[in-house]
Design brief:
- With 148 residues, the chain is mainly alpha-helical.
- Helices cover 55% and strands 0% of the residues.
- The chain is built from four helices and no strands.
- The two termini are 43 Å apart.
């Protein structure tokens, strides 16, 4: 087994072990949450550094990968990918419609805030009802480092 595989197995074993210790009442959930967050930050930094290195060395990697063809190298195929991103910001008609969209969104958001405060969602100038945005709510945990 490779070093990477061994590290994965070790992290996975420790993860399962800590989860069981929380379930059995031997460890505090918040203590384990801190440990997991620290690990996630560390692993995220490692992933970003490796991603940067891969992108900086894309030509050397893909040039060498060509000699392995469709079989790849150790189970991996490396190909240089291109992505085109279109921007319409230079088109005056698009810019006008985009600005109009922002106005509609702002107006609808303000109407939603009014309804949240017990007021009607009505345009004060025209008296017309302002359509409210669709609101989606999700639950997640936010973890921040305390500033000292």
């Amino acid at each position: 087994m490779s070093l990477t595989g061994q590290l994965y197995e070790q992290f996975q074993h420790e993860f399962i072990e800590r989860c069981q210790q929380v379930e059995e009442g031997d460890l505090s959930p918040i203590e384990v949450a801190v440990q997991f967050k620290q690990e996630m930050d560390y692993l995220s930094q490692l992933a970003e550094e490796r991603k940067t290195w891969l992108n900086e060395n894309i030509d050397a990697i893909t040039d060498e990968a060509e000699q392995y063809g469709k079989n790849g190298y150790k189970g991996f195929l490396f190909t240089k990918q291109y992505r085109e991103t279109l921007s319409f910001k230079n088109i005056p008609e698009w810019q006008e419609l985009y600005n109009e969209q922002k106005k509609v969104e702002s107006k609808s958001k303000m109407a939603w805030m009014s309804v949240q405060n017990g007021l009607p969602n009505v345009d004060h100038e025209t008296g017309e009802e302002i359509p409210l945005p669709e609101v989606k709510v999700s639950t997640f945990i936010k973890t921040e480092k305390v500033k000292k």
